[in-house]
Sequence to fold (777 residues):
Amino acid sequence: MSKQINVALIGNPNTGKTSVFNALTGLNQKVGNYPGITVEKKEGICKLPRGVKAHIIDLPGTYSLNASSLDENVVIELLLNKNDKDFPDIAVVISDVENLKRNLLLFTQIKDLEIPTILVINMADRMNYKGISLDIDYLEEHLKTKIALISTRKNQGIENLKNLIANYKDISVTPCLNASEIDKDYFDNLRKAFPNQLLYKLWLVITQDVNFGKTERNEIDAVSNFKTKSKSDLKRLQQKETIKRYQFINDVLKIGQVIDVSQAKDLRTKLDRVLTHKVWGYFIFFIILLTIFQAIYDWSSVPMDFIDSAFASLSEWTKNQLPSGAFTSLLAEGIIPGLGGIVIFIPQIAFLFLFISVLEESGYMSRVVFLMDRVMRRFGLSGKSVVPLISGTACAIPAIMATRNIESWKERLITILVTPFTTCSARLPVYLIIIALVIPEGRIFGLGYQALTLMLLYLIGFGTAIISAYILNKILKIRSKTFFVIEMPNYKLPLFKNVALTVVEKTKSFVFGAGKIILAISIILWFLASYGPGEQFNDAENIVKTAYASENLTEEDLQQKIASHKLEHSFIGITGRAIEPAIRPLGYDWKIGIAIVSSFAAREVFVGTLATIYSVGSDEEETIKNRMAGEVNPILGGPLFTFASGISLLLFYAFAMQCMSTLAIVKRETNSWKWPTLQLVIMSGFAYIVALIAFQFLK
Amino acid sequence: MQDTIAHLKRGEKGIIVDVSSIHIPLKLLEMGCLPGNSVELVQLAPFQDPMYLNINGTHLAIRKETATHILIEKITHE
Ligand SMILES: Nc1nc2c(ncn2[C@@H]2O[C@H](COP(=O)(O)OP(=O)(O)OP(=O)(O)O)[C@@H](O)[C@H]2O)c(=O)[nH]1
Ligand SMILES: [Mg+2]
Fold:
């Protein structure tokens, strides 16, 4: 039997851990040029030479073993808990050749844990560019380790790394410096009290709050009781420790690394002069946002129109080709229109992810954090909240996970609570179809009204998020230390492969994730819309014929009337009309009501639901948009989707909390039902009121 | 009065002399903000906050509030 070894990838943020992970395992985890892309443990398998199998664990980045935020804590917890099933047999420390000195701090700490440690120096392709040369033999000797100099971008050195991992037994486990020298008496006492424990591990446990195995924790509690070191003394000792480690590192690098500054090229300074400028910085940020909306709106309209009509003809074709019957109409009236309601949005979703991923890969995101920190702080947020708020435009779920690198719990909680206000990609379908129906097509300053409306909706989303943050900041009585440190990475040309992968993966999961739900819902809806109880439904033909006997209707009109009479008395019609009184004041009919209810499963379902309901109610081949435009308001007459009801619907979707997965993730990240419940009640209640006011004023 | 990082103007440099204040997070020291290292103010956001620094080759941004606790000696160009 081949045995499996645990390999943990550890390193500072943004050094390429995930890139190495992907290279070793062949998986496609997300990579980006922003410290804090990976926020939880990811696992994969790698086959090594001589039949050894390695279980590779990708971890969030951390600057040291003293955690100051939740993502960093993951690493420490793993390393301190020998009983964890993922406890590494080998630690692979990934460092970035440009920041070797800083990266080695963590390396020396891990060596002190006496785990076999390999040092990977990544981004070797940047050495020439920065005028760096290394004496690997010297470094290996003094750091007491094996070194793999690699470049995941150029795919160099990976085989060598695999070999080193396979031969991990040869790697020394002696620490490379003696950190306990900083306070001999203290550490001697500690060693005497716990002769069986690793000294450095004890020290880590004393100096920080780690979820530790219960028994061991108690032992340590005992030690901190009989040792009398005040908190500030401990902190001073930690400072001393850090300085000592850096002294050692400086000494090693003095000989092991040569940097020829005259060779170094510096793009960063030039770009930062503009991109982080007091005025130009904000201006450029605004232009970038504007471009994104224009792109989402204008560039994708061509493929969208094409997809829309293709699905309409497919549905028609199915109806004509297959023998008529329940199955055919399920297919033609339920499934195909339902799926069409999702596939149509692929172009926009892809554009959105394209832009977000380019922003992340280029290193621009940290600049936005820098520019926005001061503004965000006014509202009780952190500059780092900008990243969740921006990536929330794709989906609130990863966005809420991305808050894990915010140091202050209060700032983090507020960010989690307000992030669902940002316009996620699932709202986009609803917005787009309604904007197309009720906003005229004209242009002003070269920008379409429709694109501007869309941008306005995004701004409303951000605005509400920020204002709610301000209110929460005033209400919530949480004391937590706030500080803020963010690394500003080098600019990088986005790697086409990384960007393309993100776009494809995300779009795929949008289509399939939502697709599954939509498929299920459209089948249920079709069933509920095609069958009904009682005479009104089953005898619809006679009832309608008698009712209109005096009028001279054409055969076609008569069929139309029968179909809609049937729909109204089907199961779904009955349910819909039961909830209609609640939503009529907002300007909606029962069909929209059904769509709103079903979109609690996922917002994208809205359009698919309407598509299914409408196509059961009519015979003709029509695109979704034309069907919606043709709907008549049952009470007021005239089109159902007017300016007033359209705006009301847009606003409802802008504010309502309509996503079960988001609620679930908020529960997980805040560890309580209190916050998701509050979100659901407050956001949806607010949405109802705003939509009500809007419709009543505009109608 | 002793200078701090908050006293730097854009483009100015200094040498860090003391970081023992309790208000300086350990993380900052671990990122290389240690006595003897050089610090350059690369860029300021409006209201001089946050501050974008280059500390011995590491580029990072911190809030002004933290910067006022890091004592430095300015390097004046001849
Ligand atoms: N030039 C160059 N860039 C690289 C190399 N490896 C990774 N990168 C880039 O470095 C950035 C960070 O890569 P990631 O793999 O996300 O780094 P990480 O350590 O997982 O980052 P976090 O999860 O945020 O801690 C990305 O923009 C990569 O494209 C390399 O060998 N050369
Ligand atoms: Mg990562």
In short: The longest helix of chain B spans residues 26-30. Residues A 17-18, 37-38 surround magnesium ion (ligand 2) (CB under 6 Å). Residues 5-75 of chain B form a domain with the SH3 type barrels. fold (CATH 2.30.30.90).
